[in-house]
Specification:
single chain; Arc Repressor Mutant, subunit A; 2 domains; 3-stranded antiparallel beta sheet; WH-like_DNA-bd_sf
Length: 131
């Protein structure tokens, strides 16, 4: 899984946020144009071409999908933010000498609420596998 640089992460955050909140009247999340991403990141004072280059690189990395809408490209995330983070976590586990030891260390470091979320997810997964 590709790790994201600061600017790539900011662009992906715009895409993920827009995908999570579809526009009024749209049945599903629609893509975002380069101009819309640049406007969402206006506090960074980025050139349009910089945003276009970042989106093009993200498309090349498989992080975004793009579709032609008239003369402009429309971009959307290839996976959810949660799927991306989960992949990063699995990649980190692959770096561990012992996945079991790393998982135990991680499990001991989470808060009580986070432990409950993990426990519920594992219980649901076990139930799905049984039936």
């Amino acid at each position: 899984m590709t790790r994201l640089g600061d600017l790539e992460r900011a662009v992906m955050d715009v895409l993920w946020d827009r995908a999570a909140a579809p526009r009024a009247g749209a049945e599903s999340a629609t893509g975002v144009t380069v101009r819309e991403v640049a406007e969402a990141l206006s506090d960074r004072e980025l050139a349009y071409t910089t945003v276009m280059t970042v989106l093009d690189r993200l498309a090349g990395k498989g992080m975004v999908e793009r579709e032609r809408e008239g003369r402009a490209w429309s971009y959307r995330p290839a996976a959810t933010r949660e799927a991306h983070i989960a992949r990063l976590m699995l990649d980190a586990l692959d770096l561990a000498g012992s996945r079991d030891a790393a998982l135990v260390r991680f499990a001991r470091s989470v808060t009580g609420n986070e432990a409950e979320v993990l426990r519920a997810a594992l219980t649901d997964e076990a139930a799905d596998r049984q039936g």
